Amino acid sequence: MRTATRNKIHSAAIKRFAIKGFATTSIQEIAVRGGISIGLLYRHYKTKQELFNDLVLYAGKGLEQMIKKFQNGSSPTELIEQFTLEVLHDLEKDNEFAQFLMIMHQSSIMEGLPHKFNI
Fold first, then answer.
1. 116 in a domain, yes or no?
2. Helix 48-69 vs helix 76-93: angle between axes, to the nearest 10 degrees?
3. How many domains is the chain built from?
4. CATH no. for residue 71?
């Protein structure tokens, strides 16, 4: 149940942050879009920034995994080609990937949010 609730929160938050940005997205919007109460959302995340940070870190870990998959001794040109094809494939099958990229970009220009990854 806890994982299902967290997934609802993440899915709703990713979409709202990607569409409206961090500053103009409210906790209430995320809760409504996720089909949960505001109180339940606050049981998982104390603040909107904490939720955003969690999503950014999750996206960063996903990128790390994708990059590690390509560390196989290929030439730089082959690595760039493989990585680009993987990104395009992910974008075609699921626009949530694009939304993750958008919130990662937002985090890179906002103060006080994590945007450094060990890639």
1. no
2. 130
3. 1
4. 1.10.357.10
Distance CA 27, CA 1 (A): 20
Sequence letter at residue 14: I
Is the confidence at residue 115, as pLDDT, over 60? no
C-beta of residue 33 within 8 angstroms of C-beta of residue 16: yes
- The pLDDT score that the predictor gives to residue 98 is 73
Determine the structural domain holding residue 9 and report its residue range.
Answer: 2-109
Condensed to tens digits (0 to 9), the pLDDT of residues 29-87 reads 999 999 999 999 999 999 999 999 999 888 888 778 777 777 777 788 887 888 788 77
State how far the Cα of 119 lies from the Cα of 116, in Å rounded to an integer. Answer: 9
